[in-house]
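User: Can you model how magnesium ion sits in this protein?
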Amino acid sequence: MSRAKIIRMPDGKPDIAALEEAGRILKNGGLVAFPTETVYGLGGNALDPEASKKIYAAKGRPSDNPLIVHIADTDALPPLVKSIPEKAKLLARKCWPGPLTMIFEKSGIVPMETTGGLETVAVRLPDNEIARELIRRAGGYVAAPSANTSGRPSPTCAKHVEEDLADTIDMILDGGDTDIGLESTIVDFTSEVPMILRPGFYNLELLSGILGEVRTDPGVFSENPDVRPKAPGMRYRHYAPKAELFVVEGAVPDVCRTIRALAEQQIREGKKVGVICTEETFPEYGEGLVRCIGSRQDEETIAQHLYATLRDFDKEGVDCIYTEAFYTPQMGTAIMNRLLKAAGQKRIQAEES
Ligand code: TXA
Ligand code: MG
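Assistant: Here's the modeled complex, given as structure tokens:
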């Protein structure tokens, strides 16, 4: 295949002629990457089994890992599903368009290729004008996993998509940097009590405030390999940085001192070391490749830069990375879920002074 055509809409404003072309590509079974408010998606026609197969092939993704069907209007939901629980209707009213994916029993129009062989379907209505205008022009149903090669961090800008997929897809719509930087919260409505299968911008507290009782899938945070997450994609070690990654936990001053000591020791042994820190703690570090991810006062900046920072360290070819832990108020659960997965659950408890 020739290289993907890249169309820039950096201010996030839809270019209608380009979106018409992109919509035609999707209707004809092709693949188009597009921005959403969470991460970039790799889109194909969700109702076309051949398009879904192409998505798996382009990403190098196992075909039992289901895709999320993206819609542009809530009216598009009923045809995809057997029924919609009242609580799901309520959540859709409150959180759509937005960084929320809901799981339902699927209807007959959704091919098994799209759901990875499951009888359930994941649906999301993204809060991004380019995405919604594209979905409308593509016939209303766009299957889209994150637009990265399987095993790399999700893309938060078009450049990341280009690095991974330029030679395997038809078009990339560049809508600038994504707002949130972490994938959507997934809530399963096929169980008795709504269950969070993947934490994201919406956390347990916010969802319980709207729905009443909500549970988190025990597999999400379990370090026991026998407790398997319900979302197939949460079972893999997703993204493993080329370097060994360690998450250092504890009170912030203890964390800084511990990372400093570990980094110095590794450097003495001739290793190339990376450190992930925040604006507040940056002055505490001297040696190694020190990257500031954002501010502890503004957790959105930490989420926004997480994947780009990990990609950056892959390019720099460091041997090991130490990161501070970020248990921030709203997105801390999601940030730590992604970081610990990237670290293969390797944590270090900082010693108290
Ligand atoms: O923010 C997002 O959700 C982004 C943007 C592009 O919308 N998409 C995304 O897709 O993160 P992906 O494919 O990278 O992650 C989808 C996750 C996987 O862990 C998958 O296993 C799970 O959703 N999933 C999809 N359908 C499911 C189903 N029917 N039952 C359980 N888990 C499902
Ligand atoms: Mg993904």
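A couple of observations from the model: The pocket of threonylcarbamoyladenylate (ligand 1) is lined by residues 36, 38-39, 41, 65-68, 101, 103, 115, 118, 120-122, 124, 126, 144-146, 183-184, 186, 197, 230-234 (CB under 6 Å). The radius of gyration is 20 Å.
User: Helpful, thanks.
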